[in-house]
Design goal:
The complex is a heterodimer of chains A (329) and B (333). Chain A is α/β, with parallel strands linked by helices and 329 residues long. Chain A folds into two domains: 26-140 and 281-309, 3-Layer(aba) Sandwich (Rossmann fold), CATH 3.40.50.2300; 142-279 and 315-327, Rossmann fold (3-Layer(aba) Sandwich), CATH 3.40.50.2300. In chain A, 46% of the residues lie in helices and 17% in strands. Chain A contains ten helices and 13 strands. In chain A, the strands form two sheets. In chain A, strands 6, 7, 8, 9, 10, 11 and 13 form a seven-stranded mixed beta sheet that branches. In chain A, strands 2-1-3-4-5-12 form a six-stranded parallel beta sheet, with helices on both faces. Chain A starts with a helix and ends in a 15-residue tail after the last strand. In chain B, strands 1-2 form a two-stranded antiparallel ribbon. Chain B has a single domain, classed as ABC transporter involved in vitamin B12 uptake, BtuC. In chain B, helix 10 (203-213) crosses helix 12. Chain B starts with 8 loop residues before the first helix and ends with a helix. Classes of the chains: A alpha/beta (329), B mainly alpha (333). Chain A binds chain B through residues 47-50, 52-53, 196-198, 200-204, 206-207, 209-211, 213-215, 217-219, 221-222, 224, 236, 239-240, 243, 247, 260-262, 265, 326, and chain B through 49, 52, 55, 57-58, 61, 64-65, 155, 159-162, 164-165, 175, 247, 251-253, 255-261, 298-299, 302-303, 305, 307-309, 312. Chain A: One of its GO terms (cellular component) is cell envelope. Chain A: Keywords: Signal. Chain A: This is Ribose transport system substrate-binding protein. Chain A: Residues 1-28 form the signal peptide.
Chain lengths: 329, 333
């Protein structure tokens, strides 16, 4: 009995020592150590969206190309699942963390864990304003998106003054919330009337199209001919709005954001869908990766932690030349 | 399964409430509270927008908006009649729509793609039924698990994207009109009538109600309870698939989660409907009243420009009110 106990204890001690030896590797704070592979944790909550899925593939391919030791964590919009997984990976040690399309407001615990471990976070579209959480966050210029889409409506309607425009937003998405607010302010400043008196809110992105369809249908039923345009914060809901306009036989024009295949198809068809916006995700990711490689080389961090890049308005004139966001390679 | 037609008046027919003698005003109010709520909502919104609310265009609009919910709520009604519930109805509908879209985009003829999608719904319902009736899992656990897996399958089928450019002939199912009324309205009415007939006039419906009333007594009375539950879930899966295919045709596209809100609203509609019959059992007539309340409320609040978040709060409060009504009725019996 005593021999068995001693044997078991010895085995347990040996296992503990082995585990301790395994977990002693890699820490944050520098741009990687000579022979060891550069260790990267990448996470996204939006992997079930077309752009999020593209980001996962693109980051994985880049990591393979550069010989990084990549841990990819896909959160399915479930922060309760994703955040602990990322924190656990941070506990194992890493050189860099990559955040794809996950707003800073949802990853407070990850930011704290990364700071404690001295690991910088490089992000794509993870906040609409500068934030110390990131060594770098590059996103699209929200004001630019609004200027382009409202400009398209302005041109089409012969001015915005006196026109009735519905703005459809979705508050939980930081980018959509910000640009919907900017659009509402700019419309008011241009002398347009907000349909319904305020930004119309879609409660769930999953049902955005049907919600927008109902919102616009009901408004047009109550106010036949009372809508000149619909500004929508993202294409899926914009497609629902355009369908409602078409079904009502109204003349209103609709703009969206994202440049999905379906939206581009709608624009090319010449119906109610007037324009959308292409956000240059591949070049944004390239810029982020370049910054990560500079950090890997000698520990250099970007001079600015936030960058908002210009976007491209997609209308009938250039729709055929745009790569849809859901077809990115 | 024997489908002999027999009448099932106490459980299914709300009209019997009116012929029941010696009922207090309080009892009557409890019994007809949901119908009164619907009437009150209609009067309120009509008073607020008399020029719009009861116009042909708007009534058509409401019917169009609730047609698919009515079908999925019909599916939910069947399983709630047998005393269970199905958390996977909305996910099943999304998967069926996605399968149909994917197959059509792959070149499969429309009727065949629809048949395969219906088969997918039927199989999911069958799986639910087997797990619940024969493996004895609780409906909550089994349908929650199915919901999870089916949602994953829908993401696999759609590859996380929105499938579109569907054949015009298919889209016409959801966007076409007959006598200026959208086709999904007719389909929803037809399905509701069939379900109503099955529940009210067939042996199968009687067995479902008996099973929902008391499983043990039903079993001792010779009802094959397992088979009854299996059939209820299987048919619910099939009906959910019809709803999902129509939603895809209505939108002209399919995504993995596009019908998600139909789960909450279908359960709400059935609960609302349970208050209109004396027994407090799920029933199609009541469910359609519940669907109408949800549709009228959403449309009316939209017309009045009420914020979507407030609409959600009001929907929740109405569900609470309905369940409270049911509970008060149960106590008063």
């Amino acid at each position: 009995m005593r021999r068995k106990f001693i044997t078991l204890t010895a085995a347990a001690v040996a296992a503990a020592l082995m585990l301790a030896g395994c977990s002693g590797s890699s820490g944050g704070g520098t741009g990687g150590d000579g022979d060891k592979a550069f260790k990267v944790i990448a996470f996204t909550s939006g992997n079930q969206t077309p752009i999020g899925a593209w980001w996962v593939k693109a980051v994985t391919a880049k990591a393979d190309e550069l010989g990084w030791d990549l841990t990819m964590i896909q959160g399915d919009f479930d922060f309760q699942k994703m955040n602990p997984a990322v924190e656990s990976a941070i506990g194992q040690g890493a050189d860099v963390i990559l955040d794809g399309y996950t707003d800073v407001s949802s990853i407070g615990s990850i930011v704290t864990a990364a700071k404690d471990a001295g690991i910088p976070i490089f992000a794509v579209d993870s906040g609409t304003e500068a934030n110390d959480a990131f060594a770098l966050n590059i996103t699209a210029n929200q004001q630019g998106i609004v200027d382009e889409t409202l400009g398209a409506l302005d041109d089409q309607l012969g001015g915005l003054k006196g026109k009735t425009i519905m703005v459809i937003g979705h508050d939980p998405h930081a980018g959509i919330r910000m640009r919907a607010g900017l659009a509402a302010d700019d419309l008011a400043a241009a002398g347009a009337t907000l349909a319904g008196g305020a930004i119309q809110k879609v409660t769930s992105p999953a049902t955005g199209r049907t919600e927008a369809l109902a919102l616009v249908s009901d408004f047009l039923t109550a106010n036949p001919g009372g809508l000149d345009g619909v500004w929508v914060g993202w294409d899926d809901a914009a497609l629902g709005a355009a369908q409602a306009v078409t079904e009502a036989g109204a003349d209103a024009k609709v703009t969206g954001v994202d440049a999905t295949s379906e939206a581009i198809g709608g624009i090319e068809a010449g119906g109610a869908f007037l324009a959308t916006v292409e956000q240059p995700w591949p070049s944004i990711l390239d810029s982020v990766m370049t910054a990560v490689q500079a950090y890997q080389k000698d520990g250099t961090l970007p001079s600015s932690n936030f960058e908002a890049v210009d976007t491209t308005l997609v209308d009938k004139a250039n729709a055929a030349t745009i790569t849809p966001s859901d077809k990115l390679k | 399964m024997n489908m002999t037609t027999t009448s099932n008046p106490v459980l299914e027919d709300s009209a019997d409430i009116r012929t029941t003698p010696r009922r207090s005003v309080g009892q009557m109010l409890l019994s007809s509270g949901t119908v009164l709520a619907l009437i009150a909502l209609i009067i309120f919104f009509f008073a607020m927008r008399p020029d719009v609310f009861l116009s042909f265009t708007n009534v058509k609009n409401i019917l169009y908006q609730v047609a698919i919910l009515a079908i999925i709520a019909g599916a939910q009604t069947i399983v709630m009649v047998v005393g269970d519930f199905d958390l996977s109805v909305a996910a099943t509908s999304s998967l069926a729509g996605a399968v149909a879209a994917s197959l059509m985009l792959g070149g499969m003829p429309i009727p065949l793609a629809i048949l395969v999608a219906l088969a997918v719904g039927l199989l999911i319902g069958l799986a639910n039924g087997l797990l619940i009736a024969y493996v004895n899992l609780s409906a909550f656990v089994a349908t929650l698990a199915t919901l999870t897996s089916v949602t994953g399958l829908a993401f696999i089928v759609t590859q996380g994207t929105t499938l579109f450019n569907l054949p015009a002939g298919f889209n016409a199912l959801g966007q076409g009109k007959f006598l200026e009324i959208p086709l999904p309205v007719f389909i929803a009415i037809a399905i509701s009538l069939i379900l109503w007939f099955v529940l009210k006039y067939t042996t199968l419906g009687r067995r479902w109600y008996a099973t929902g009333g008391n499983v043990e007594v039903s079993r001792l009375s010779g009802v094959n309870v397992r088979r009854a539950r299996l059939l209820a879930f299987t048919i619910a899966g099939l009906v959910s698939a019809i709803g999902g295919i129509l939603l895809t045709a209505r939108l002209g596209s399919a995504s993995a989660v596009q019908g998600d809100d139909n789960l909450l609203f279908s359960v709400a509609a059935v609960f609302l409907g349970m208050t209109i019959v004396r027994s407090g059992a799920a029933n199609i007539v009541g469910t359609m009243v519940g669907v109408a309340i949800i549709g009228v409320m959403s449309n009316g609040l939209n017309i009045l420009g009420v914020n979507a978040y407030v609409q959600q709060v009001v929907t929740g409060l109405i569900i609470i009110a309905a369940v409270t009504l049911s509970s008060l009725k149960t106590r008063s019996r």
